[in-house]
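User: Could you check the structure of this?
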Amino acid sequence: MSRWGIFIALEKGQPIDWAAVALDGTIFPARSLQRGNFAVLWDIRVHPDHKRQGTGKALLQHVVQWTKTRGNGQLGLETDGSNLPAIKFYAKMGCELGAILK
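Assistant: Sure, the predicted structure tokens are below.
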């Protein structure tokens, strides 16, 4: 866990969003694909009452900056192909499709 970042956004002391990112991590563990300076967004969650208010965007932008300051040139992530809200969010944030795994 020494190469992980855990981020929690609070509102009035209560968590509304959170994200976990692994530095220099395995991208797709089942495939054991390793890359040296590739961080992995392991999970990101936004409380349903706070969706579409910009908090997820701010959280992801913070994660990107945090990984860059630690020498990671890219941030990878994985989502299910049926999760359209997540796919649209990541596309809006400038993410590019890297692979489709079967």
